[in-house]
Amino acid sequence: MNITKTLDAKGLACPMPIVKTKKAMDTINSGEVLEVLLTDKGALNDIPAWAKSGGHTVLEQKIEEDVLYFYIQKG
Amino acid sequence: MTVNKWTAAQVARKVIDNEELFILDVRNHDAFEDWKIDGHKFEYLNIPYFELLEGVEEILPKLPTDKEVLVVCAKEGSSVMVAEMLSEAGREVAYLEGGMKSWSSYLEPIKVSDLENGGELYQFVRLGKGCLSYMVISEGEAAIIDAVRFTDVFTNFAKEKGVEIKHVFDTHLHADHISGGRQIAANTGAIYYLPPKDATEVVFDYTPLTEGLNVKIGASQIDVNALYSPGHTIGSTSFVIDNQFLLTGDILFIDSIGRPDLAGLAEDWVGDLRETLYSRYRELAEDLVVLPAHFMIIDELNEDGTVARRLDDLFKENHGLNIKDEAEFRRTVTDNLPPQPNAYEQIRQVNMGKITPNNDEQTEMEIGPNRCAVR
């Protein structure tokens, strides 16, 4: 997977992770992949729901040492 | 326009006083479908906050201007953002302080009745989760039944009333919420009772709660009689208070009955459940007022906010008490059960003392409705 951009949103509380993710997404092109690092557990459901509503695809997600990683391909 | 902040207590008043309210819930659709703030006269619009990042213009026509509008999210942050956007668009709105997290933990103490010789019986209604806890007060002493984990609410209430908590009971080992009983007992020196058949795996000391146990509260001799009533769990125990009130735990609710599958296989306990509901409870005085450990839907609340109904009314109206055919009863309580409560296996572990999650983890575990009933 080619990661075009990485957003570190660790420590941010809702709604900021999504606000920042959206802004970062606006800077990449369709088909490119954004990596997002988060610690807000609410994002676990919100990121996929947001991606779906915006036509993006979550390629992969994982949790490592309390950090959530999302890999989102722009639609 | 100003953005107002409402507490969970203010929203609880709206529910209990049957007032109108328009709730703009900005959590994602799944979360809203699963669990929301219920009110008799509440209206709802569910738009996830992440669909409003570009602006709120699209939803303005859907928001009433002649009604109070409350923006709600999981923890507060997103509702503040949306409320501010609406305010900038000229609307006066409020947001819920602490979001659904604070709604889930709010308890409203409501007096059910006076008891003989100046005693009082209170029901603590956890509107957000449907849990009901009880406090019996008499002449300087108190007993608590099925306390939820917000132990300060109970100890502060006892302090306000000038009473000492002497006895703390759990009707059964809970699977939908974390009990505060053991903690309250530890903090106050009260005796903590648990039915031994539910407690085979617990890792702490407790006093066995068995059939026939009679505890007196205060000098006025309020009787709390234990009645073994298995079915929801194998140890489930009911209480009769002063020959007037029947605390049914998770066995019998107002419009539903307990489900037998949360601590094992439904098939194992369906016979016990039937025996309790169709034989043991039938032998009790019909004018007892049933006080359950849960409510399922907001319609079960009485006008004063309490959840209470006479036993003979339930014999007539509660569907679960009126299934004549045993095989049909068996099917009803074993097939088509609703989804199990969130993290119920972990919650049981906590209540056994086997794991001790921190406060945030406990909040996560308790998210969502209680789902202890089958209709």
How is this structure best described in words?
The complex is a heterodimer of chains A (75) and B (375). Chain A has 75 residues and is an alpha+beta fold. Chain A has a single domain, classed as Translation Initiation Factor IF3 (2-Layer Sandwich), CATH 3.30.110. Chain A is built from 2 helices and 4 strands; from the N terminus they run E-H-E-H-E-E. Chain A has helices at 16-26, 43-54, and strands at 3-9, 33-38, 57-64, 67-73. Chain A has a 4-stranded mixed β-sheet, with helices on one face. In chain A, strand 3 and strand 4 form a beta hairpin. Chain A is globular and about 30 Å long. The two termini of chain A are 16 Å apart. The model of chain A has no long low-confidence stretch (mean pLDDT 93). With 375 residues, chain B is α/β, with parallel strands linked by helices. Chain B has 2 domains: 3-103, Oxidized Rhodanese, domain 1; 107-374, Metallo-beta-lactamase, Chain A. In chain B, 26% of the residues lie in helices and 25% in strands. Chain B has helices at 8-16, 29-34, 77-88, 99-105, 151-161, 181-188, 266-280, 311-317, 326-334, 344-351, 359-365, and strands spanning 3-6, 20-25, 41-46, 69-72, 93-96, 108-114, 120-126, 131-138, 141-145, 164-169, 191-194, 207-208, 214-217, 222-228, 237-241, 245-249, 257-258, 289-292, 309-310, 373-374. A 7-stranded mixed β-sheet of chain B has the order 6-7-8-9-10-11-12. Chain B has a 6-stranded mixed β-sheet with strand order 13-14-15-16-18-19. Chain B is globular, with a radius of gyration of 21 Å. Chain B starts with a strand and ends with a strand. The model of chain B has no long low-confidence stretch (mean pLDDT 92). At the A-B interface, helix 1 and helix 2 of A face helix 2 and helix 3 of B.
